[in-house]
Amino acid sequence: MMRRRVAARALLAVLPATLVMVHSVPAYAAPTPCSYNYDWAQQWVGTSSAFYHPGSGCPYGSTRYTGYSGLAGNLQTPAHYPSIASGGIHSLGWFNLDTCPAGQTIGGQYCGSYGSWIQEGWVAGCIAKSACGTCPGSDSSHTWLCTSSSDGIHLYEEGDAPPGDLSNYTVLDIGGLSYSSTIYLTIEWYPNPAPLYPDCAGWQGGGCWVSIYNGNKEAYWHTGGTPNSADDFKTSGGPVVGSEISSTYNSSGDPIVEMPTTVYGSSDPSTTGLRIKGANGYVSWNTSLPSGYTMLYDERNCPDSGQNPVCPNSPKPTYISNFYNYYKVEGCDSC
Q1: Residue 14, class by beta-carbon neighbours within 10 Å (0-12 exposed, 13-18 middle, 19+ buried)?
Q2: How far is CA 217 from the centre of its chain?
Q3: Which residue ranges of the chain lie beneath pLDDT 50?
Q4: Which of 141, 138, 139, 93 is nearest to 119 (CA)?
Q5: pLDDT of residue 196
Q6: Across the strands, what pairs with 180?
């Protein structure tokens, strides 16, 4: 994601009805902020109001505000399968809660090189299931799981628990999604999940993060330790929505991966627009937040040879477009 690390990704088998997150195999290494083989269009909550783009600085770091415990709203999927030419890896659109942003220290705990987060959204293209060095390629010792135009886009769930080094990284393939469809996504911390999610409450007796798709729980994210400790998720985080593409380095600037239009939120601030959960419950993600400020990032100034290697894979600029004071936004390369 610009991310922090928006991350190395993997797809596993179709998710069963309930998941408790436990330690998983290491994943393909994630990018650093402003990585040359990732391009983004994102909105998140920071400690100041700013619009970042190549040439004005990287979007993550000390600017992140992590005091929210939920993110919810509509996501409208793209109208078609994105173009992913040879050398392309994936195209994504997601909701995300960074519980411990990469490189930061939160509550005395260092978040690690990649950080800890929970994410859900749509995916097209290839995702690594394990550490693999040079990807993609012909290395038969590493497994890839890919979607193609015949498979369509899929819903995925992703998370990385502390210590933020990808040793606890997990991604799940939930199944196919329709084009131009509107889905409702929620990522929320439940300190007492027993009334709604008793099977989560039974896991070491603590609270947990829950990923929800159209009202149905898809994943529990809880390692079984003590929340906010060095080996478990924190109970709050930083909301982010955004589009992401990944491709191998391409000095010619030829198009590799398309970022199709994804709509985050809606025109209704009280129900299906982007909302974030603070100390007093959910509020509209607008120009007046209870804590923190809305921040934006895109690569509308790309391509620019002077910015390499920040965006050499952006033959078309990426855009984050704001509607209705941030509770509806679009990410794309042509909107």
Answers
A1: exposed
A2: 18
A3: 1-34, 129-143, 307-308
A4: 93
A5: 87
A6: none
Helix, strand, coil tally for the chain in percent (to 5)? 5, 40, 55
10 is a domain residue: no
What is the number of alpha carbons within 13 Å of residue 208 lying toward its C-beta? 32
Assess contact for 311 and 39: CB atoms under 8 A: yes
Residue 204 lies in a domain: no
Q: Please give the residue range of the domain that contains residue 92.
A: 38-181+224-332
pLDDT at 299: 84
Q: Are 214 and 97 in contact (CB under 8 A)?
A: no
| Number of domains the chain contains | 1
Residue among 125, 57, 38 nearest 313 (CA): 38
| Whole-structure pTM value | 0.85
Give domain status of residue 66, yes or no: yes
Tell me, what amino acid is at 259?
Answer: M
For 176-188, give the DSSP string.
E--TT-EEEEEEE
Do the domain assignments include residue 75? Answer: yes
